[in-house]
Amino acid sequence: VAGNGDVGAVKYFKGKFDAYQRTYVLKDFEATINVRFLFILLHGYLKDTVAKQKLGNTMPYIKVGMLKNFQVPLPPLPEQQRIVEILDKAFVAIDKAKQNAEQNLRNAKEVFENYLHGVFDDKGDDWEDTSLKKEISLATGFAFKSKYYTTDGEDILLLRGDNIMQGNFRWKDAKRWDKSEYDDFEKYQLQENDIVLAMDRPWVKAGLKCARVSKSELPSLLVQRTARLRNKPQLDNSFLYYLIQSKGFTDYLIDIQTGIGVPHISGKQIFGFAFRKPRLKEQQQIVKKINSLSVETKKTETLYQQKLDNLDELKKSILQKAFRGEL
Q1: CA angle at 50 for the pair 45 and 53, rounded to the nearest 5°
Q2: Smallest Cα–Cα separation from 230: which of 197, 203, 201, 198?
Q3: How far apart are CA 118 and CA 108, in angstroms?
């Protein structure tokens, strides 16, 4: 059982292993306990229970007493075995359905990504060579002092790299700045449709940390190690946004990012990205087609994500019935 970090996470292992600090090992079970039954119960309920009791902020942890106090409903051994057989059979079917839904979700994303790659890879003969330096204005954020951050919901949002996800923003634990000083930072004020890019660890397994600012993110100020891209008149805003999400730009960033612990990019490197672009009217036509496919892709993604959520709820429901003695 994980005692810190992902507190309450449970794994089952048969054999020898080394347990490090704050790893709690359950062993030497009494004959009245089916180990598989106990594992399923802990796996289904322990994490949610200890999440309400965990200590610490940077590295959450639990104490052994919290684990010892966890209440375990324990029916007779034959009943435990019967429940395990039912649950294992049900979980196999649920897991198979989840695998199919996850694959369909990946397929939907890949169709869109491949189409996007094709748009910027199969360039027309009349497209002109250019670079981001010629086509955008670029700003990097200000080093706001953390000791002056506020949590007042009326103050100004500070947009940091941690807030930027793949096409959207995460505002949990958002940092803010005194609204009375907003006008002092005009250079760092964001506008609707600005494209923002994390400069520290710009690419992660989930994809490029890039998003487009909407009205709901405003007013906000750009923080250091975050870049703001704003298109010039002859480059369509959405064309730029899709270009930044393309495989060509992502591959370029991965190749030129520097640093080992925390890979990063510079404004100069962003400016250095070379590409080809069509005339503005054709850009807008291309964007219209991409938008249409994007809408259909998101509908499909929503459908399969809902199916995954429903399967998770089904699994929880079966567990609850099992441990209430209703199976």
Answers
A1: 150
A2: 197
A3: 16
Last residue of a domain, one of 56, 74, 92: 74
Residues of the chain with pLDDT under 70: none
pLDDT of residue 306: 96
Q: If we measure between CA atoms, which residue out of 268, 252, 275 comes closest to residue 120?
A: 275
Q: Beta partners for 231?
A: 136
Does residue 287 lie in a domain region? no
Residue 110, CA distances (Å) to 115, 116, 118, 165, 294 in order:
8, 10, 12, 18, 12
Helices (H) and strands (E) in the chain, counts: 8, 11
Q: 215 is written with which tokens?
A: 């009205």
Please indicate, yes or no, whether residues 138 and 64 belong to a single structural domain of this protein: no
Number of domains in the chain: 2
How many Å apart are CA 164 and CA 202, to the nearest integer? Answer: 9
Cis peptide before 219 (omega within 30 of 0): yes
Task: Supply 184's token pair.
Answer: 């002092």
pTM flag (> 0.85): no
Q: Six-digit token pair at 268?
A: 């100069």
Inside any domain, residue 27: yes
CATH number of the domain where residue 152 is located: 3.90.220.20
Cα separation of 204 and 210, whole Å?
11
Sign of CA dihedral 273, 277, 280, 281: negative
* Structural domain boundaries enclosing 259: 128-277
What residues contact 236, with CB distance under 8 A and at least 6 apart? 280, 283, 284, 287
